[in-house]
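2 proteins. here.
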Amino acid sequence: MIEMFDVWKTYPNGVNALQGINIKINRSEFVYVVGPSGAGKSTFIKLMYREEKPTKGEIFINGFNVDRIKERQIPMIRRNIGVVFQDYRLLPNLTVYENVAFAMEVIEASKSKIRKRVPEVLELVGLPDKLKAFPNQLSGGEQQRVALARALVNNPSIIIADEPTGNLDPDTSWEIMDLFEKINFSGTTVVMATHNREIVNQMRKRVIAIENGQVVRDQQRGEYGYEN
């Protein structure tokens, strides 16, 4: 599903954000990416959906070498990857329905398919009655649910999440994690960067730990292992 071979990322300022990463993530896995601030977690995540490109090495997503594909092929890759961010990144002038529908419009889905699919995915994340609401009318947890719905609406094979509970209170964080686990049980691969020690330690999924741009630990049913 996701493979990295000797991946390096060096930024223009000379910082080696990642050094010699070799990782394989299989279909339907749930993987936490942990490590101290500045360790390289966000770069690791961004390489998967081609927000960043590696300086050296190869990355394969669903069999495609993401560094070698043409620009016009990027939407095809991203169609199979849903991304969820800490700050939600909802469009403030669009309703909940319109925010989720936008992800389908980008891939030129038909209007009939959009009308059918958007309510379905909002039902899945527990917001069937919020279609006409705007982001500023929602709580943080509700906004993150909309962001998750947007990531799910095109039935991606992979969900990538960068600190998705970072702005949420503990109870709401667990509600969001329950949704991620439900999505994973349906067969979707989940890769999540997080600083949330309690969630990682209780859920006991695979843990990839990064320090100074290198993978220092890769454990099945792993624990967080760092001070926050």
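next one coming up
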Amino acid sequence: MARYTLSTLLAVAAVSSVLAQDSTSTSIEPLASKHFTYPDQIPYQVDPANGVRGPQQGYNLCNSTTENQQSMCQTAFVNHIDDFCLWAPPTPNQTIGDTEGEEVAWCTKAGRGTRLIPAGALQGVQYLKTPDYIQIVGFIDQSQINMAPDDFGGELDPHGADLRGNPLGGLMYSNAFPSNNGNNGSYQQVIEWHNFMGGNAFCMKVCDPAGAHAADYCQHIFDRIGCSYNDPNTAQNGTFEVCDSDDADYPGVYTSNGQVMTYTQPPESLGAITTMPYTARVASSSNCVTYESSALYTDLAAVAGTGSASSSAPTGSVTGTAKSASATGGKSSASRSGSAASASSTGSSSGAEALGISAVSGIIGVTFAMMFLS
């Protein structure tokens, strides 16, 4: 059970209230409906309006002049295991819940006009290529990308209660899909994606813009049940691998006694999620190739982090990252019970654990995995 100060709770309630109001505005053009060809059509800011949550904090027009560790670039890329970006805070020791509208792109390759993930921060990454999406799951020392070491995080996506996205104005591009005709020099805008960050772990799914079910595979409504249910995986700390994979089930869809069922996430007002009616199926994978991180992330060698060794990821599968929803069932601006990488006694992946986890818990390993429902 998470613990918060009175001021935090009041702030969350206030923000949730104004977001609910903002989401009803007819003047808002949803971020997911904005299309920009890269790089020629990229505006300085995708969302310059001063809405209820304020203006966009960063910018989208990024180049060599914006490439540094203070960059406010909010244009991200996901291309391969050695070339992807994550969303994280612009200032040190922040939680995803307090900054989700402000997150900036942290990338593994130079040349994007973004910040670079510091050398050594990535501690294990699994890259899955499926017929309909790319999924990247891994372990990270999150203190090196400005996240508070004890933040169990939350979800980022191009929707949100006010439809402006989290982060506001955040864009995603990729050159990895067949619909791009194998042109590695050009990038397609990815309209549907989600990124869970926290608990020294992360997962990201970006869906093929040409796919008929992009919105189904990249669901953004299951923010409280984390990586295990949104991005089932077998990622392992210390392993960097690329695999072909079948499509998993849509998040929230499962089969019980031969009947296809759809899970409905309860609103936060009903309390912590303590049980789940199903275990998410991990899709079959093949043709896995492992790499050394030093061979993958050569651009990061010159970037030193400030994180401490004590905040490194625990061993085991990435099973966490859950985010609280507002009492109305919509997206809240505050993440609560976030991402966790729980470990089994063998270090193998269960692919399906982690719900609401206390942000004050310091327990890891088997005990941690057993307590996530408490």
